[in-house]
Amino acid sequence: MLKTEQAASLPAAQAETTPSRRHSGEWWIEQIIRGAGLSTIFIIGLIFLFLLREGLPAFVRISPLNLLGVRWYPIEELYGLLPLLVGSLLVTVGAVVIAVPLGLITAIYLGEIAPLWQRELLKPLIEVLAGIPSIVLGFLGWVALAPLVQQAGAPTGLTAFTGALILAYMSLPTIISISEDALYAVPKEYRDASLAIGATEWQTIWRVVVPAARSGIVIATVLGIGRAIGETMAVMMVTGNAANIPSLATGMFFQPVRTMTATIAAEMGEVAQGSLHYQALFAIGIVLFLLTFAINSLASMLIGGGKQQRSSQL
Amino acid sequence: MQQATWQPCRLSPILCRLSGHTVWLSLFILVLAACSPAVELASAAAPSSQRVIQNKGSDTLVNLALAWAEAYRQVNPDLLIAVTGGGSGTGIASLINRTVDIANVSRHIKEEEIDAAHANGVEPTEFIVAIDALAIVVNLANPVSELTIDQLSAIFTGQIDNWKELGGNDAPIILLSRETNSGTHVYFLEEVVRQGDSGSKAIFAPQTLLMPSSVGITSEIRRNPNAIGYDGLGYVDPAHEKLIAVAADAGSPYVMPTVATGMDGSYPIARPLYMYTAGQPSDAVAEYLAWIQGPQGQQIVAELGFVPLISP
To answer: Measured between alpha carbons, how far is B1 from A305 in angstroms, rounded to an integer?
Structure first.
């Protein structure tokens, strides 16, 4: 639908920029815009190079056995990344499991079911939610949520689950807004056709509209994961920061964990530049970078596959 | 053929604005930092005759340093003292980088820090400014009230993990500690977990919760009946936390942490608190340090619950 709009507006744009109107000023503006666009690539390249320069030596100077160990305790030069990796994964997976279904259902309600006045009230409110600084949510989690989790039977209120709850709440606005936009982009004809052949409204939503919006929903999920895995302050306040691999037996999610981001934030202030500890923290940064890169690649693969399937169906 | 191409910026203004939130967040943190009681700049529009002393480091010392800075305004109104926390390691790092005049440190300076300072042309000069008794705290509901250093070491290394082994309830022990950049953490590791044995390689159990601040420890102690932690005597409130009497070994008497037991040396976990300057301090800084070590400064030490160097 949008592509046809673009195609229609293209000749009009060409007509406007006839050679007579193409001043040198316009050339400069084009260059500035191009430069601004390309600067993103340049800056990302620089960040990556910096990360590699500071962090790669850690993989040489620290023995692989140490890096793959189960203890992170820099004072004794123990740099086992495993507990931090498990901590980040537990918190993120927990957040996604809570936030994606909730976000998708909310988006369906907003896009397909809610009357107009509710939608117009709810949508701006959800965007306001996205603007709450993470440290405020972290403080809320620390003061209000942690005691509840402890009362529910966890040994302490500062657990992976508490972190996951806060992160789920933080990624909800992103997931809702983007899923809702994706649902909105599904052509009305799909719904009409489905209803016309006798499907109920629920069948239309679940079998036609949601599958058609799949790529947008996947992106919503990935952005949600991205927000969750990179979040630092809120997580640092509510997860207890114990570099421990929780045992399966006692309820993995209800034990304190230490995430990769919180480790970098908590320890960066004290390290001497260029020391082993400093490089180890950058090594965590590299692992984090690779992890998000992998998640994003996975998402684009999923979206690509979905598109092909859809065009072959149509 | 129609296709539902998904375009984030056209469809979702929120996505385009996501990066904007980072800006807001940093602004917010700036505001927070400006409002934080740990940053005390008496007057923003200081006349040029006023000198500013930058004072940074240990979170244990931060309240004390603030009280000193405030009281010293009466003595020398021309001197502004800016006090910041961040941890002992942070303070020394700033001293080495020459961004502060005085570093507050709650442990002795490390060999590698002295080396790093020398490499940067800085000669750290040490001043003992107060003594801190490290209190072992548990929840008010915890029946345990006495522990030996030996037992504390076993608790914090994870060898003892249930309160019933210490005569308490049948409940798991929740260990609380400061982050590893805290001087208090290092002191506790050396003097309690390793019991002063420099050859010992004992470390905190992996399940130890590392709290970013003293407040983090006290708030968890208050709400968790099974938690145990440590904190400077000046930071504990006996009305809300239970202080444990500590014995140096099984044969010694159990001693409660107080200013008196800290001063006479009978409480086993007490340590000096330091201020470090780069080289010999300048006149203004030297006067300030002498005032701190004198009766007026030490009076404030006692008022804040720390142990003074001289009897007030």
So the answer is: 19
Is residue B138 within 8 Å of residue B186, measured between CB atoms?
no
Closest CA to A162 of A180, A148, A172: A148
Q: In chain A, what residues touch B122 (CB-CB under 8 Å)?
A: none
Whether B137 and B233 share a structural domain: yes
Give the β-pairing of B124-138 and B270-278: antiparallel
CATH code of the domain covering residue B29: 3.40.190.10
Tell if the CB–CB gap between A75 and B203 is shorter than 8 Å: yes
- Dihedral sign computed on CA atoms, order B141, B142, B144, B150: negative
Containing domain of residue A202, as a range?
A: 81-272
* Token pair listed for A169: 């709440």
Task: Flag if B116 and A73 touch (Cβ within 8 Å).
Answer: no
Tokens representing B106? 């709650």
**How many domains, chain B?**
2
Strands (DSSP E) along chain A, which ranges?
72-73, 78-79
Give yes or no for B29 touching A (CB within 8 A).
Answer: yes
C-alpha distances (whole Å) from B211 to each of A2, A218, B186 are: 51, 36, 14
Whether A134 and chain B come into contact, CB under 8 Å, resolves to yes
- Identity of the amino acid at A312: S
Are both B97 and B116 inside the same structural domain?
yes
Supply the pTM of this predicted model.
Answer: 0.75
Give the count of domains, chain A: 1
**Chains A & B: contacts with CB separation below 8 Å:** 148
C-beta of residue A89 within 8 angstroms of C-beta of residue A102:
no
Per-residue pLDDT tens for A14-71?
Answer: 545 555 556 788 889 999 999 999 999 999 899 999 999 999 999 999 998 999 989 9
Domain identity same for B264 and B284? no
B198: contact with A, CB 8 A cutoff? no
Interchain pair A212, B204: CB under 8 A: no
Q: What is the rounded CA–CA span in Å between residue A45 and residue A50?
A: 9
For the residues B25-49, what does the mean pLDDT come to? 44
